[in-house]
Amino acid sequence: MLSRIAESLFWIGRYVERADGTARILDVHLERLNHLPADEQRCAAGELLAVMGVAAGSSGAGLEGLLHTLAYDKDSAFSITGSLGAARENARRARETVSSSLWEALNTTYYGVAEHRQDIVGTYAFCNWVRGRTAMVSGLADTTVSHDEGWLFLVLGRSLERADMSARMLSTSDVFPAGTTWVNMLRCAGAYESFLRTGRAAFGDQHAAEFLLMDRLFPRSVVYALRDAEECLAKLDPSAQRVGFLNDARRIVGQARTFLEFHRTDNLLPELPEHMERVQEAVAQASDAISRKYFNQSVDLEWVGEVS
What is the pTM of this model? Predict the structure, then answer.
């Protein structure tokens, strides 16, 4: 497969998942932000932007700046609109590989962004709409694209981004002065009902954090996403060597997964920031290793701005 096609598919997976994850985080935190006093609102909005990787001073203060930066800024790789635009542009570059259904879904989704009001109420509706559209795009990718190397690159990008976004979501638990309830955090990940079915709902925050971080069966847990990425890397570069790994990305992802999966969880909540930082660092290092091994012109293709 051509390197440019593989890279475009990888970034389609990442950007679609980034739009979905950002929509989930905004959806769960908007109401609390909207009810904070002005000073606390500005502080919480700044901390939330920092968790999402936005440099200080790159956005206006308060809720309005937060909405613009994370939802509607079409020139930013951190925003929902920017991510959807970049996913669409990468699909256009890989048009000979992407199915017509997947291309039409991405194209329609991008142009549907303009129909939403850019205020608090409009952003609630926008986030729900984005979650529905990204779920459809992921479903079409799984059912209308051959599960060959191209699909593996798409799923690899999606899995790495999901691990990163889940880690960022967990990192937002301390953004607000009174903290964030783990019920809200579970709802943010779409995990509330699945968590209740485990029978551990009565045991509190510790078990909720465990579920989102380490559960082996829930698709949005960090461990599950890292395992998916590891399996994609193993299929893309099978190796019969008996010691070590030649694929740096597989080693990085595997180490991050096993550290979490076999870690004692007695003091999970105090250790959570350290775990989340480790996951985000592993995802960044793995992405760099994948670019070095498989892609050319990674700097040129990684972020693609979209013109109106």
Answer: 0.90
The predicted model gives 99-107 an average pLDDT of 96
How many helices (H) does the chain have, and how many strands (E)?
14, 0
Closest CA to 174 of 40, 44, 61: 44
CA distance 173 to 42: 17
pLDDT tens digit sequence for 58-91: 555 688 888 999 999 998 889 999 999 999 999 9
Query: Could you tell me which residues come within 8 angstroms of residue 123 by beta carbon, excluding any fewer than 6 positions away?
Result: 26, 30, 67, 71, 116, 117
Residue 128 host element (H or E)? helix 120-144
The Cα 166–Cα 213 span in angstroms is 8
Residues 224-262 pLDDT 10s: 999 999 999 999 987 766 676 667 899 999 999 999 999
CA angle 127, 57, 279 (to 5 degrees): 60
Q: List Cβ neighbours of 149 (8 Å cut-off, separation of 6 or more).
A: 1, 6, 236
Count other C-beta atoms under 10 Å from residue 53's C-beta. Answer: 11
Q: Where are the domains of the chain?
A: 3-302
Q: And the tokens for 171?
A: 């990192």
